[in-house]
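yo

u said u wanted the structure for the complex thing, so here. seqs first:
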Amino acid sequence: MTKYNLPVGPQHPALKEPASFWFKVEGEVIVDVDIRLGYNHRGIEKACESRNYIQCLYLLERICGICSHAHTTAFAQGVEEILGLEIPARAKYIRVIIAELERIHSHLLWLGVAGHEIGFDTLFMYAWRDRETVLDILELISGNRVNYAMNTIGGVRRDIDQAKREQILGMLDPLAERVKFYTDLVTSEPTCLARLENVAPVPADKAVALGTVGPTARASGIKVDVRRDDPYAAYAEIPFEVITSERGDLLGRAIVRLGEIGESVKIIKYALQNLPEGPLTVKAPRKVAAGEAVSRVEAPRGEDIHYVRADGSDHPERVKVRAPTLANLFAVGESMKGAYVADIPIVIASIDPCFSCTDRMIELVQSRTGTSSVMTWEELREYGIRWYGHGHRS
Amino acid sequence: MSRVGRIFPELIRCLFSPPATVDFPKSEVPVPPDYRGKPVLIQEKCTGCGLCARDCPAAAIEMVEVGAKRPKPAFDYARCAFCAQCAESCRSDAIEITAEHHLAAYDKEGLRWVPRYEGTKEKPAES
Amino acid sequence: MDIVLDLVRILIFPGLLFAVLLSLFLEWLDRKIYARMQNRVGPPLRQPLWDLFKLLAKEDIVPERADPFMFTVLPVLTLAAAATAMLYIPIWGPESAYPFWGDLLVIIFLLTVPTMVLFLAGWFSANPFGAVGSFRTVIQFLSYEVPLLLAVLTPAVLAGSWSISDIVRFQQTHPWAMAAQLAALGVGLLALQGKLERVPFDAPEAETEIVAGPITEYTGRRLALFRLSTDVQMLVGAALFSNIFLAGVVGPWYLAILLFLAKIIFLVGVLAALRAMVARIRIEQMRAFSWKYLVPIAVAQMAVIVLIKVGVGV
Ligand code: SF4
Ligand code: SF4
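structre next:
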C-alpha cells in the first residue's frame, strides 16, 4: 500500500476554522496524525487586562459565536465569587434558560454540520432551518440572535415577562417534535448508520485518560456534567437527566447530543414555569477587591473553565480561559488512528470543535530546527521586519 | 432498525411548499420590538458625563466637543457591537436602543453619527 | 451535402450544442429539485449557463508539477466523448442520428471514457487530493461498471438485439417488457449515480474530505469542460435509460421530442431525489454495496428475463 501525507488544513473545506492536521495515510487508512493549533489566536485574554469588568463581559462573549453565554456566565460567576455576591434567584433561572437555549442552538448547529460532513446536505439544511426557532426565541428574550449579552456582573440584564413566557412555551413543543424526527432519522437511515456506527470509537477508559469533557465524554459512558457535579446558577433546583451512551462512537455522540436537546427543552419548560419572582440584579461594585476564582460552566461542547484574578482595580489582572475543545481534541487524534480518510471530516466534527475558542497561545517553533522560543512583542516585531526586509516575500 | 428513505415524505412535502427563506429585501423577517439595534442619543437628556464611553466595550463612543459645557457622545456604528451597555450605563436615560438594524452604508462616514452643535457661537469649520 | 448534414448533426443537433444546452437545463433542474426538496429557493434557470461563462472567463492555472499536455487534452476529451454519445441516442423517434446494430455498446464505451479521463486527470495533477480521488474513481468504476453493464444488457437480451432502435421497437410492441425489467432500471439508476459521482456515491470527489478529488487542481475553462462533461453524461445516461427502459418515443417528431424531454426530466428528478435522501458512503462501503446488492439483483433480473424469454418465446 502506498504511504503518503495528507494535509487537512489550515485551509480545507472540511474545516470551518483554520487548524492544521497532518495525516500519515496508508491507502485509505490513517496511520498517524499531527495536530497543530494556533491559527486563531486573538489575544483575548491579554485584551481583558486592559478593559474594565463590564467591557470584559462583551469581549469574552465573543470568544465563541455559539457558546457566547457559557463564557460570560463562567466569567461573571468568577467575578461574583471574588466579590462574594449571591445573585437573585430569578437571575439564576434566566441564566439557566439562556444556557439551555444555547445548548439546543449549538447541538442543532452541530447536527447540520455533521450532516454536511458526511455528505447529507438535506439534513444540514433541515437542521439549520429548525434551529431558527431557537434563534427566534433567543432574539425574543435577549434582543439578539447570537451574542445575547444577557449576563452582567451580579445578575442578568433582561427579564422574561409573562407574555414572552407563553410565546416561548408554544414554540418549544414543535421543536421537540423535530428533534424526535432527527433522532429517528439519524438512527435509522442506513447511509447515516454506515458513516457513524463504530467509527473512531473512544472506549470509556480512554475517554478518561485523554481528559474528554461534555458530550464527547458522555458518549463514551462517562457521566460527567458540571451542571450535575458542581451545580451553578439554578441547576441544583431543576430536575434533569445526564444523557450518556455506552457506544463511544460517532453515533453515540449524535445520540447524546440529540438526547440533550430533549433534556434542555424540559429544563427550559421547568424553569419558565417555576420562574421565581424578584429582582434581576444585585448591585456590583465596579472595583473588585484582590482575589482569585476559578469558575466552571457546562458549555454545549463540555466543561468551560475561567480563571479570574483581581487586584482591586476596575479591570482584571489576569483572565484565563480553557475552552472544552482543547480537552476533547486529543481524543480526536487518538481515535483517528485506524480510521479511513473518508472519516476525517466527521471525526473532527464529532467533538464539535471550536478552534477559535481554543487557541490561547502561539508557540514559535523554528520549522527547520524544531526549537521553540519565547519572544517579547518587541523581538517579534523586529523579527518580522528582518524577515520581510530580507526579501522572503516581495 | 435501519430503514431507507425515512426522510422521503419530508422531501416531497418541501418540494411542494414555499421555501423557508424570504426574498430580502422585498420582504423580510420582522425583529421583535425590543430588538437590540442601533443606539440613538437623545441629546436633550444627555449631561455629557461620559459614562457611556467609559463602558462601551467596542470603543464605538467618542466624546466630542459640541460647544456646550461638556462634550457629548458621537457614535461609530461601524464599531458598535449592539450590546446596549451604553444605555444601561447612562444614568440620564439619554441613550435609546432602537430596533433599527438596516445600517448598511456606502462608506465608513455613513456609519458615524455626531451630535449637533450646541454652542451659541457659529460652529467652527471642520478642519 | 452529406458532409454538411454530418457537421450539423455533430456540432448542432443532436451533437455538441444541443447536448450542452439540454444538459445545462438538466443541471438546473437537478439543482432546483434538490434545493426545493431541502426547502431552499434554488438557482434561477440561467444559473448553469452563467456559471459556465464565469468559469470560461476565469484565470487558467496549470500547476508547476502537473503535466501541461494532459491538462489540456483531458478536459476536451471528456466532453467530446460524452457529447459524441448523444449522436447514438434516439431523440425524435426510435432511430438515432447514426443508428447501427451495436450502438448500445458504443454508448457504454463512450461513457467509460470520461471516467478514465477523470482518473488520469487526478493522476497528472500532482496533488495528494487528486491522487486519492483518482484511486477512488477507479475503485468506484470497478464497482458500478458490472451492475451497470448487466442492467443495460437486460433490455438488450429481452429484445434480442444490441441496437437501441430494436430495443425501443420491441418495447413499443411489447409494453409488458418495461415492467419485467424494473429491477434493472433501479440498479441502472444507482449505478448511474455512481458513474456521475453523486451522493451517496460521491466519495471520489467528496468535498469535505478531498476537496474536489481528481479535479482539485483544475480551474477556469478546464474545470468548465469537466463540469460540462458531467452534465452531458447525466443527459446521456437519462436519455439512454429513457430509451432502453422506458420504451423511447413515438409519434410525429415534435411530440416525440416532448415525450423524450418528459422522460428524461422524470429520470433526473429521480436522481435528484436519490441524492437528497441519503448521506455519502465511504468508498469501501460503496464497493461492498455494489457487490452485495447491485450485482446479485442485476444477475437475478437477468435470470428472470432469460426465463421469460424462454417461456414466452419472444
Ligand atoms: S451598544 Fe455597546 S458597542 Fe454600541 S455604542 Fe453602546 S456600548 Fe458601545
Ligand atoms: S452616559 Fe448618558 S448622559 Fe452620560 S454622556 Fe453618555 S449619553 Fe450622555
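Strands of chain B lie at 39-41, 61-64, 72-76, 95-97, 112-113. Residues B 39, 56-58, 60-61, 75, 80-86 surround iron/sulfur cluster (ligand 1) (CB under 6 Å).
cya
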